[in-house]
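Worked example 2:
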Amino acid sequence: MKETIVLEQDAKSRLDKLYKEILFHNKKYFQDDNPEISDAEFDELVREAILLESEFPKLKKKNSPTEKVGSKPLESFKKVKHEIPMLSIQNAKNIEEVDNWIDGLKNFLLLNDNERIEFIAEPKIDGLSATLIYKNGELILGATRGDGNYGEDVTENLKTIIDIPKFLDKKLAPKVLEVRGEVYITHKEFNELNKQQKANGKDQFKNPRNAAAGSLKQLDPSETAKRPLRFFAYSWGKISDISFKYHSEIIKYFNDLGLPINVESSVHLSLNSLEKYYNNTLNKRMDIGYDIDGIVYKLDRLDWRDRLQSTGHHPRWAIAHKFPAEKAISKIIDVQIQVGRTGVLTPVARLKPVTIGGALVSNASLHNYDDIKKKDIRIGDNVWVQRAGDVIPQVIEVIKSKRKKNSQIIEVPNKCPICGSQAKKELLSEQNNQVNFEKYIRCTGGFSCSSQAKERLKHFVSKEAFDIDGLGEKQINDFFDMGLIKSPTDIFSLEKRYKNNPPKIWIYTSGSKSKINTIKDSAIKLFKAIEDKKNINFDRFIYSLGIRHLGSSTASLLASHFISLENMTSIFTNNSFDEIEEVKSLDGIGSKVTDSLTIFFRDKGTINLVKELLSLGVIVNDYEKVDIDSKISGKKIVITGTLESMSRAEAKVKIESLGAKVVSSISQKTDYLITGNKPTVSKVEKAKVLDINVLNESEMDQLLR
């Protein structure tokens, strides 16, 4: 029996000791996987600490390891802008693509084959990315990755994760430190969680990643605290007052600060070494204790990273070498057609249910009818089905030795199964008696096709577009079927049309019925959510329109180029050839995107849609261009020939970091032509005719200083 402590001084001494012991044993259990005491002994330490904290509340520290949560439930999560974007990582399917990536780094940096290059290799955890911001050692903000530019403030939920310290050592911590990492759940704790879910009569989670994501996004932090979330730190955003030369140095620094790092990461000097690490990790994948779906390779030297920088989508200095997709055998029972936002008819196989990678699979994509013909896929066939991450399962191969005589050939449709409109392939080109069609069959019905209309509406309100709370996939389907919303403009006229007489279906738009007193309350909440999203950034608005070949990263590139919706509309409606050619020459754009934009803005219906949205109060904010104080900010530059001091790719990155744009073709709007060895003669001659400044490499160096 423990001695009763009555003096505050004695209590403080004991409590400090308990805090240290709890943190030590917690690290041994969760980080080192090497516990020194039993669970019961650990629980006894925690209980004693809680008892002392209750008897002497003044002694309880803000960062007490006994306190997992101390906040009230939220109504919703606030949006957080990432000061430094949280970019995706490009993927490699095999070691050859990793080798090509390394060659690309060497070419970009002009490195010779004998140059020592160090790489960090670490398991790619299949969890949820999050960022932690510490100021003067105190955790002040935690957020999800979101779309890379904006995430959700989940600070209080992240504070419940026992791996994440609320305070860092002030002697070691800088004024500002942004730590990035992955939230996940171990296999052992996932199984225990599902046992609890089953015992409580609740739905079980499909996999650890879904469980982690759902747990982190609980509006009530006390609910998150009940979930066994873990955290690994693997990268950073902003760090003040301190500098490093290598990624591996920063990871060691994280460990010194008390942040959890992945002990499986290591440094490698060759492709062979990376491949060996990959194979070893793949072989012990199931023994690691948590889900991983590949290996991430990162360039260790930070000065080289600074030179490489990033594309609009991913850093050039990192790549993810994915593990082979998991597969299983199933049988095709039937084939149904899904009609997408752009009218594409996608055949989907209905399968005899089969478990792949821990998930029950009953549907698989057949991609398109050319692929069906190529693989000779038939209804009734036994097939290999592949599942990779969150991607929809795919039929990859027919087991023809098991084919039955009554297998059914899959017919190519000539009509849309939803609206009955003609379905056909689009003509891409016609030259020298050769006709080239695209591989997809499309419904020609447009907005008159209910399936297309619904998918366009879902895209319009998606997270990377207008992101309207209370208008998810289910609501769009229901509202469309009831005739409440048929086009995007109908969303912004809902309040005017139904303010005094909202339909009964609106009782469901806010989730739990118990939290809504009346249909009117639900309607008011939806009206407010719509009103709050009338003000939208230019890039998100472009994306919301659902223009073919135009994703969110491309929308951001276009927004940074055109600055305003008015400017973009004017150029494409007036068919301004030089300006369109300039857009086409931008990195990441190309002819497919510009052709789609040209078709879109020539259509009177889509132009009227944009005008009507603006008339209903939608405000499209001009792109916020970061003012860069340099001699070439806002200039347009063309590079021709081979440079000696740096690669053309690096020159482009450096120029654009100074606020200028690198384009491929010369026009009257070009400010400089930079010439290296063996420049294109026609470009030099055209520059002289247009009286454009022509600079050699030495003059370029002066310009960029």
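The first strand starts at residue 79 and ends at 81. Residues 1-5, 508-516 have pLDDT under 50 and may be disordered.
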